[in-house]
Amino acid sequence: MVPANLTIKPKQPENNPMPKQKQSRSKPARARRKPSAELIEVTIDQLNDDGIGIGRYQGKEVLVAGSLPGEKVCVAVEHEGQRRIIGQFRRLLTKSPARKPSPCPSLRDCQGCSLMSMGYADQLDFKQTKVREALNAYPQLKGTDISPILAAEEPLGYRTSAKLAVARRNGRIVIGLYRRGSHEVADIGACPLHHPLVNRIVEVVREEIARQDIYLYNPVTRRGLLRYLLIKVSPATGKAMVTFVTAQREYKRITALAKWVARKIPEVVSVQQNVNASSGNVIMGRETLRMVGQPDLFDQVGNIRLRISPTSFFQVNHAQAARIYALVRRWAALESHEFALDLYCGIGGIALHLAQDAGRVIGVEMVEDAVRNAQQNAAMNNLANCRFLAGDTAELLQDLIVDLPSLATAVLNPPRSGCDVEVLQAVTQLQPRTIIYVSCNPDTLARDLAELQKLGYRTAEIQPVDMFPQTAHVESVARLVKTGQQANQ
Predict the structure, then answer these.
(1) Residue 120 among known ligand-binding residues
(2) 273 near 261, Cβ under 8 Å?
(3) Is residue 413 a known part of a binding site?
(4) Which of 54, 154, 251, 365 has its CA 20 to 30 A from that of 64?
(5) Which CATH number is 444's domain given?
(6) CA dist., res. 285 & res. 183, Å (int)
(7) β-strand partners of 480
(8) How much is the pTM?
(9) Which stretches does the entry tag as region Disordered (predicted)?
């Protein structure tokens, strides 16, 4: 049970129809920037869904990253609107019993880990409550069986993948994350969440950028060469892939940078250049060029070997991903004559685990590079009973409804926006015995579970998983059965 002083600001259920594309949001009114940082004292009442502290000052809501409920803090006013103040944590006046020393010297500058000042047991309570409250927003989901959250054995050093912006600030090179609502990059230094090899690569890249004086991209002027540094690490092999995202093709300096990194860190076995000339905030472009080493990175989760390309998505927490895959396989309980479907399958991690038990598995994924990897992974693991399709999930499902035999299990692993209603309708038309929904967003999970209940499937149990310790994010795995079917069937 979450302590009384670690409340979460309640949210309204997601009643909007499930769109095929992201709905555009209207821009908020332009905030008034203070000519100088006014200092105010605020008592924090609760955390919002992102783990940001909320208090009130002169009738306005105040958001303060890094603060905890029950604390009184001194805050510098960064932006003030008609109803809301964005404040920067300056000094702690009254301390919460949930606060612990942070292992990160860049915490206030970076703000990427909203719960890092909170003890780990309290973080788990916060996330458990977050899942429960998301479901309670829908009357039909109240009372759903939610198991205790699966804690991470390693709450630090777990991130095996990093997407970092590169910039100059006050004459120095900064590599890190964009601050909320700005074009300014906060330097993360040696991030305690990153795998040690990620931090080694970051520092070597920083040194070589300075030595070569590489022109870094400025999103305001839209000038410069190097935009992002992407790193993927395989804990199974101890090897890494590095991708430099540039604003245009450039051979000489990026090749020199790639060779330098591979020479300084032998664990780097693949260096790529991705070209993104767009002015938006999408990180990667369509063109990827191999600079040094092999084209892909190899990893292993459980007993499944995986091939990962520069543009393919893979879970950043290797250990917790393995636990999720094992749970999905256990819940599916497939037999050798049965058929399973894995939607939003990525590089095939879940599908390949299911294929060890099933007669046949089909995976569906939008990203063509990921499908290519999934096909290679099936061959590499000698699993000939897997087939992978590239394309829009809803459209492909319409074809599969006609062609598929009886379906035992359907696995849904969508992005944060959840599933389109057309996907949910098509899945239930296939009448699987079990639906397993893997979610990284409790709000869209609850919305989709409520929709699936209308379509004849009730939620038998939910298992939260702490995939991202020190942050407010929580993964959940839900098992659904046909309405009227026993939960243990």
Answers:
(1) no
(2) no
(3) yes
(4) 154
(5) 3.40.50.150
(6) 19
(7) 435, 459
(8) 0.89
(9) 1-36
